[in-house]
Write a structure and sequence with these properties.
mainly alpha, elongated
Amino acid sequence: MNRQSPIFSPTRIWAMGWNTLTELTRLKVFYFLLVFALLVIGNSLFLAKLSFGEEFQMLKDVSLGAMSIFTSLIAILATAMLLPKDLEERTTFTILAKPVPRYEYVAGKLLGILLLLAISVVVMSGLFLVVLWVQEHNAIADARAALDAHQISAEDFNTTVASVQRATFTSNLLPGILVIFIKSALLSSLTLMISTFASSAIFTMLMSIAIYFIGHLQATAREYWLSGIDPHWWTRPALAVVALLFPDLQAFSLTDEVVAGTAISLGLFLQTGLLGLFYIGVYYLLACFLFSNREL
């Protein structure tokens, strides 16, 4: 007797996710964005020398900013190509002809892009930390050379070393990098949801990029509308609907806190992470609903 296929199979989802990752690594846009991001992060070491006394702040600002922008671009551009490419090559029909539910197919695609984003963030973070370590080493070496030349005292040397170490590897680096990954994962789930009903990859990209800018401007617009002397009765409900449809991406921008050395509290990190997971879950469910009702 044949065993009935399980309703939800992590093995099938992992297989489709790994296959999606393999396909995405062949896309030229992925290599272009990743290499360009690595060049920007590596170049930040030279940019940091332009501002004496604020080297580490500039280094973190440039590096984390580049990571945020390029992971977002990878999430949007790579995800927008997934479903149209599979439909064009008829891979979708081959997979769905087997006992694979459509929600598993969507989950496999989302898992593949999340693996791609995780690899990208790890690679860029590794280079960023190496550049940060080199900058720290150079700063300490300059201070030691000044001490050997009797330009500073031993007490000043120890103070400089302590200041450099405090400014380099801080406890808020890891939460800041994780929030960048969560933001890119949110954008990938949003783009995947749009692609389930979009007619082309170009339309999906344009819609996702537009929502990206709306999400970053949403907080400013909300503050403007609520700061009025006598806001209309429909202002708050309308803003609530906008916040539900378009994620507030400004809530995932913790780069300023990292650059300033401000500690990111556990409560703020958990709140941001849960907000990101909420949006990812909502967009995934919407993608499953839309894709299940789409005629192929």
